[in-house]
């Protein structure tokens, strides 16, 4: 019995109780990890402990002659932790690319963040079919050390979601995530400085992808926030006789920008072509992690694919900019400087504004003012609204719903899919409706409002677009109305040939707008001139004049008023017959007989067309009613 007990205890001691015992060590300077080649450091603080996730660089025969990405052999992600930055625990491998169903290898840069008690592991890896490229996946766990499981079953970011840069199929790498004070989460990544907002579930994008045109940008972004300033640090192109990557950075008052490039934060890493920042605050002190390639293990020297993680103190200037960081041998084994003074930056750079473009299937609404990126229209016909109004308490888009405000003061909303065509909208700010400051004004709904265009797609749907054909003119004309006792305005379209055929006379179409619109409606939101130019050029219409006049229905009919609906806009008919037509025929070269005069109208303008033409068939030979209810 004693022998059996001895055997059982021995087996338990070897096979269970001693299994996965963490390795602890004390750092002596930089590099901080000396028994493995490690790279791409990503620190995270949780419950008073700093966790450091790194890629495991492993040597293989022939590595030093490899190229095209094969010089890297990063097999897994390892986690280390500390509570004082000096004494560390090696927790071993916590995740591998093959833990994802689509991952086949290459554990490139990653980052772990905690939200609502869950730990989200954003990781770069090589994916197999059908992706056959670098992708970014997400794993999730209930503990910073795992076990981590694939959170989606497919990549979060794939190669077809972004335009390829010079690196092509490995453009989408190096994810970094920032969770803002209000819980809004942001993802940045790539070799083209992509970034987008994440949905609250942390596994879906919640905004179009933007490209920040950071100066000298290469890869390896890192997001962090200090006070009310946002920072994006990244591996940058070497210059001033430095042929390796350096670390540059930019700042912004909001993740939505505007971003300002601030210059070089750290020079090239010793013996390493690559470098990558990981910046964090831990127990009141700021640190910057990075890697170089100075370590030698068992006679194998460091190289581009055999790197070593380091850490140094990070200090800030009073204006929030970061002081230039000198890489040191002692690292954090010496106390931090409590009264740091800026080090002269050997790579002085001018601060510049960072431009950005937006991708991901959206484009600026064509009725935005010049240079305005928002609202945007998606390929799915959804409209993306964004307005900066930090002091506003409530904001909504008329007919579409209430907007959401972020910590920087930006209000956003994504609409449901909308029908193709032109749509009016207003922004309602604390109960007051107004036009969108980003949009051109249109007169509709009885007031000046904004408009959004959901473009038609497919063959033959460019009939209203401006083409390389002869273009006519839309002319503003004023005439005095004895009926109203006021000067009135009408717009007249003349075909392209009107100026070159002085002896030719043309038929006329009198075209009326709908309720709540005015004489500008057809030429502006209706794009009438483009349609006429294209039809005439294609031989589908004879050249003609089009006259657009106010129908006296700018103010929508009030059903609670004492006015008879048949009186609404009723004085337009005599104005047209006795004032507009004679004015047009006296000023323009037009045919004046019944056979060359037509009338059409939209909505209430169609109703006016009926009332005018059917009672005056001696004057009109053609009529058309658009969207008008009969009976």
Set out the fold topology.
Elements: H1 2-17, E1 23-26, E2 37-46, E3 49-57, E4 74-82, E5 87-95, E6 103-115, E7 118-127, E8 134-141, E9 149-150, E10 176-179, E11 185-189, E12 194-198, E13 210-212, E14 217-226, E15 229-236, E16 246-252, E17 260-266, E18 278-282, E19 285-292, E20 296-297, E21 300-301, E22 308-313, E23 352-353, E24 356-358, E25 362-364, E26 376-378, E27 383-388, E28 395-397, E29 401-402, E30 404-405, E31 410-414, E32 421-425, E33 427-429, E34 432-434, E35 442-444, E36 447-454, E37 473-481, E38 486-494, E39 508-512, H2 528-537, E40 545-549, H3 572-587, E41 597-602, H4 604-613, E42 622-626
How many H/I helical runs?
4
In the CATH hierarchy, what is the superfamily of the largest domain?
Glycosyl hydrolase domain, family 43
CATH architecture of the largest domain: 5 Propeller
- CATH structural fold name of the largest domain: Tachylectin-2, Chain A
List the uncertain runs: 1-19
Please estimate the helix content.
Answer: under 10%
Could you give the order of strands across the largest sheet? 37-38-40-39-41-42
* Relative strand content: 35-45%
Give the CATH level 1 class of the largest domain. Mainly Beta
Number of strands: 42
User: What would the average pLDDT be, to the nearest integer?
Assistant: 91
Global morphology: elongated
Name the structural class.
Answer: mainly beta
User: What's the gyration radius in Å?
Assistant: 34 Å
Number of domains: 3
Query: Separation of termini?
Result: 103 Å
């Amino acid at each position: 019995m004693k022998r059996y007990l001895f055997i059982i205890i021995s087996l338990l001691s070897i096979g269970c109780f001693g299994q996965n015992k963490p390795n602890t060590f004390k750092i002596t300077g930089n590099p901080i990890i000396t028994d493995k080649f490690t790279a791409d450091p990503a620190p995270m603080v949780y419950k008073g402990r700093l966790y450091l996730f790194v890629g495991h660089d492993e040597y293989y025969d022939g590595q030093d002659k490899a190229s095209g990405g094969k010089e890297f052999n990063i097999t897994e992600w390892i986690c280390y932790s500390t509570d004082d930055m000096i004494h560390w625990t090696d927790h071993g491998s916590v995740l591998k690319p093959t833990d994802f169903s689509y991952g086949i290898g290459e554990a490139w840069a990653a980052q772990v963040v905690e939200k609502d008690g869950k730990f989200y592991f954003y990781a770069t890896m090589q994916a197999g079919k059908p992706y056959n490229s670098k992708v970014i996946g997400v794993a999730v766990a209930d503990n910073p050390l795992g076990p981590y499981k694939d959170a989606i079953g497919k990549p979060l970011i794939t190669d077809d979601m972004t335009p390829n840069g010079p690196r092509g199929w490995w453009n989408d790498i190096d994810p970094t995530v920032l969770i803002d004070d209000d819980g809004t989460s942001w993802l940045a990544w790539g070799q083209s400085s992509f970034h987008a907002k994440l949905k609250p579930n942390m596994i879906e994008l919640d905004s179009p992808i933007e490209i920040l045109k950071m100066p000298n940008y290469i890869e390896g972004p890192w997001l962090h926030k200090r006070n009310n300033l946002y920072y994006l640090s990244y591996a940058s192109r070497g210059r001033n006789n430095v042929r390796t990557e350096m670390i540059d950075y930019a700042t912004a008052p909001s993740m939505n920008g505007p971003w300002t490039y601030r210059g070089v934060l750290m020079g090239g890493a010793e013996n390493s072509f690559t470098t990558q920042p990981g910046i964090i605050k831990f127990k009141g002190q700021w640190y910057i992690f990075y890697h170089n390639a100075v370590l030698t293990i068992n006679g194998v020297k460091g190289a581009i694919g055999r790197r070593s993680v380091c850490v140094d103190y990070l200090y800030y200037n009073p204006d929030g900019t970061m002081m230039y960081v000198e890489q040191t041998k002692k690292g954090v084994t010496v106390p931090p400087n409590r009264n740091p003074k800026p080090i002269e930056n050997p790579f002085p750079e001018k601060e510049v504004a960072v431009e950005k473009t937006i991708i991901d299937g959206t484009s600026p609404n064509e009725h935005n003012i010049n240079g305005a990126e928002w609202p945007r229209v998606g390929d799915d016909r959804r409209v993306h609204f964004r307005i900066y109004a930090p002091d506003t308490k409530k904001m909504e888009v008329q007919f579409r719903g209430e907007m959401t405000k972020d910590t920087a003061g930006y209000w956003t909303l994504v609409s449901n899919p909308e029908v193709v065509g032109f749509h009016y909208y207003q922004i309602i700010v604390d109960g007051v409706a107004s036009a969108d400051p980003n949009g051109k004004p249109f007169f509709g709904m009885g007031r000046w409002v904004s408009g959004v265009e959901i473009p038609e797609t497919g063959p033959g749907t460019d009939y209203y677009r401006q083409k390389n054909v002869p273009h006519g003119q839309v002319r503003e004309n004023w005439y005095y109305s004895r009926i109203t006792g006021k000067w009135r305005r009408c717009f007249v379209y003349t075909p392209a040939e009107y100026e070159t055929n002085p002896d030719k006379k043309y038929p006329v179409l009198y075209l009326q707008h709908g309720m709540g619109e005015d004489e500008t409606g057809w030429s502006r939101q209706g794009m009438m001139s483009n349609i006429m130019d294209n039809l005439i050029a294609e031989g589908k219409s004879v050249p003609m004049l089009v006259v657009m006049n106010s129908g006296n229905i700018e103010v929508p009919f009030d059903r609670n008023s004492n006015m008879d609906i048949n009186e609404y806009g009723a004085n337009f008919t005599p104005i047209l017959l006795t004032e507009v037509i004679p004015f047009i025929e006296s000023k323009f070269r037009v045919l004046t007989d019944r056979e060359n005069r037509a009338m059409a109208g939209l909505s209430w303008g169609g109703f006016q067309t009926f009332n005018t033409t059917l009672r005056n068939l001696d004057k009109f030979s053609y009529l058309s009613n658009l969207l008008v209810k009969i009976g």
